[in-house]
Specification:
It contains 15 helices and 23 strands. With about 475 residues, it is of the alpha/beta class. The chain is globular. The relative contact order is 0.14.
Length: about 475
């Protein structure tokens, strides 16, 4: 796959940025340059937003069943260039091929699942106190949506931002991460061809895709008075910046931010199943997933047995190239990110934690880091309280279930959590008393697209997926009709 150069995708075509500055996109596996994209500017954001605003009223008048057909057509485009997108993700992200394949396939499925929801939303008739009056509550599209995508799942989150917005009758401007924009632009090139070939009926301005730095084009998108909603997936710091920018116009925000997911292992847990699930949840995409397992609490009766099994499996997990046989995870996204992960491990050890396996960068090409297990960390330490976003996890011991709940809930984050137990009574308590948007019981950490992916506390506001995520893109409107 040769180097490519993209502009911004506005008006159903790739156009030059209104600023000459560019960004080189790196392959994290070997540090080669894969392509070049615009650094982005406020003028790019303004052009995309104005076109989206112009296109939205007509798009909202299109019947939902016809809007759903466009989503089905987008799924067909995705499947038509499936192999190219998988290969691009592997290179651009240092993502193992099996996971890249899942992401591309889930993108197509996500469009289709939302297309199937075209007739699923409805209004209400409310009883009036007045004779001859009818009160109607119905849903109106919120207008222009801005979708800000992260670098870890650029295609799937693209679908997550676009599908519900289009089905609701909104137009959307997507900002792809400057670290991983190429695969999204490749997909849009195929969309552009499908439009030219009359295989997809997507009016200009309904979808635009831009990229660049958050401090320039991102800030311009979020501080504009045009959007009705800003839906963003990323870090807490970025979410806070978006809220500040959106506040001037009282723009609605839906934010899916970081996490520090606890896993509770009770004495009666099936240890082999728990180990398999947590290792998978920790090393998936090298730990760079928001709802990954980030900390483990093990009841004292099985602590030693669990730790032995867990360390053995983490030590055996293979870090390699995306297409390498048996590779389970690859390079981290960048040199800076690896330094952040390494710094957290070094500070944990300096504070008294013990490295049970891993703990070091892996020599050679890429920004690889060993699968790492730490013990002896304090509950209030950085490694237990702050998101690592790498293949590193601390293991702590507890006595009673109430203690485990207190430790798990002791976090500024509130995205995902899990418990491993055979006790129905404890499962019911965990379901109610774990203060997180998602709780997984006896399974790995990975959400279903028909559910609702949402965090509490600093893990976010609003959410995505399923009917509840879909409804984020509507305003409620009440109409009083007196006969």
């Amino acid at each position: 796959m040769s180097q490519v150069t993209f502009g911004q995708w506005i008006g159903n075509k790739n156009v030059p940025s209104l600023d000459a500055a560019t960004i080189d996109v790196e392959n994290p596996t070997d540090q080669s340059i894969l392509g070049t994209v615009p650094a982005g500017c406020a003028a790019d954001a303004d052009a995309a937003l104005k076109l989206a605003k112009e296109a939205q009223p007509a798009w909202a008048k299109v019947p939902s069943s016809e809007r759903a057909k466009v989503l089905t057509q987008l799924a067909e485009v995705c499947r038509g260039c499936r192999d190219e997108l998988i290969d691009s993700l592997c290179k651009e992200q240092a993502k193992v091929k099996s996971l890249a394949t899942v992401e591309v396939d889930c993108m197509a499925i996500y469009f289709e699942r939302h297309a199937a929801m075209a007739h699923s939303y409805e209004g209400e008739i409310v009883q009036s106190d007045n004779v001859g009056e009818m009160i109607y509550v119905h849903y109106a599209p919120i207008g222009v949506s801005v979708g800000i995508c992260p670098w870890n799942f650029p295609l799937f989150v693209f679908a997550r931002k676009v599908a519900p917005a289009l089905l609701a009758g909104c137009t959307v401007v997507v900002k792809s991460s400057e670290l991983t924009p190429l695969t999204t632009f490749r997909f849009m090139a195929h969309v552009e061809k499908a439009i030219a070939d009359k295989k997809i009926d997507l009016p200009p301005g309904v979808v635009s895709v831009v990229t660049g730095y958050g401090a320039t084009i991102g800030e311009a998108l979020c501080s504009s008075p045009i959007p009705g909603i800003i839906s963003m997936t990323g870090s807490v710091a970025t979410g806070q910046a978006i809220m500040r920018n959106a506040a001037a116009n009282m723009t609605k925000v839906s934010l899916e931010l970081g996490g520090k997911a606890p896993c509770i292992i009770m004495d009666d847990a099936r240890l082999d199943a728990a180990v398999d699930a947590i290792v998978s949840s920790r090393i998936i995409y090298s730990g760079q997933v928001c709802n990954c397992a980030e900390r483990i609490y093990v009841q004292e009766g099985v602590y030693d047995a669990f730790l032995e099994k867990f360390v053995e499996k983490m030590r055996a997990s293979k870090c390699g190239a995306p297409n390498e046989e048996g590779a389970e995870f690859c390079s981290l996204i960048s040199s800076d990110h690896r330094e952040k992960v390494r710094g957290m491990v070094e500070r944990a050890v300096a504070a008294g934690a013990k490295v049970e396996c891993g703990g070091n960068s892996i020599e050679g090409a890429g920004y690889r880091f060993e699968a790492t297990v730490l013990t002896g960390a304090a509950q209030d330490s950085e490694i237990v309280q702050k998101e690592v976003f790498g293949p590193v996890i601390p293991v702590l011991k507890f006595g009673t279930f109430d203690e485990a709940l207190d430790l798990a809930n002791d976090s500024e984050y509130g995205l995902a959590s899990s418990i491993f137990t055979e006790s129905y009574r404890l499962i019911e308590r965990a379901r109610n008393e774990l203060l997180f948007g998602e709780t997984y019981v006896n399974r790995f950490h990975f959400e279903a697209m028909q559910g609702f992916h949402a965090g509490w506390r600093k893990s976010g506001i609003g959410g995505a997926d399923g009917k509840h995520g879909f409804m984020e893109y509507f305003n409620k409107k009440v109409v009083y009709v007196q006969s």
